[in-house]
């Protein structure tokens, strides 16, 4: 379950996206590089068509080994997060591939401030929910 949460939250952060609407809403601060609480995975949140995707740009040896065990041979460079769309200001929802178990889940990310975001996901419905706080890595 802990591996699921680590990859899921990584995925969620990678999937954070922002799109301007033409009115004076604050600039989106979701794009960029984020690290998980254990600093074992770094994700780059980037545009992917009209949505946001997330790509693993760094992972420690243990995270890479866990991903290989789950069927993801190359964790670094893997696009784990897709179809992230803004639900409302500062809240995003999308699909996350959890490489160590080879499954895709739905999750949300909420921007706390410019340097902090919280990711949350559930295994099924609202059962087995977990959340993590992620920190921006300056570019």
List the helices and strands and how they pair.
Elements: H1 2-14, E1 32-35, E2 41-48, E3 51-59, H2 61-69, E4 79-88, E5 91-98, E6 103-113, E7 116-121, E8 130-137
Antiparallel strand pairs: 1-2, 1-8, 2-3, 3-4, 4-5, 5-6, 6-7, 7-8
Give an overview in words.
The chain is α+β, with helices and mostly antiparallel strands. The longest helix is centred in the N-terminal third of the chain and has 13 residues. The relative contact order is 0.25. About 12% of the residues have low confidence.
Distance between the termini: 31 Å
Count of individual helical segments: 2
- Give the biggest beta sheet: 8 strands, antiparallel, barrel
Low-confidence stretches: 10-25
Strand order of the largest sheet: 1-2-3-4-5-6-7-8
β content, as a range? over 45%
Could you give the order of the helices and strands?
HEEEHEEEEE
Backbone CA Rg: 14 Å
């Amino acid at each position: 379950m802990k591996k699921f949460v680590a990859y899921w939250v990584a995925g969620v952060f990678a999937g954070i996206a922002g799109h301007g609407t033409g009115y004076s809403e604050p600039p989106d601060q979701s794009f960029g590089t984020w690290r998980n609480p254990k600093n074992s995975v770094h994700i780059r949140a980037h545009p992917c068509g009209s949505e946001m995707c997330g790509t693993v740009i760094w992972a420690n040896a243990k995270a890479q080994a866990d991903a290989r065990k789950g069927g993801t041979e190359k964790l670094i460079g893997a696009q784990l997060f897709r179809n992230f769309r803004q639900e409302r200001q500062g809240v995003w929802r999308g699909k996350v591939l959890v490489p160590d178990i080879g499954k895709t889940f739905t999750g949300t990310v909420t921007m706390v401030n410019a340097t902090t975001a919280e990711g949350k996901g559930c295994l099924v419905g609202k059962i087995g929910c977990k959340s993590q706080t992620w920190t921006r890595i300056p570019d």
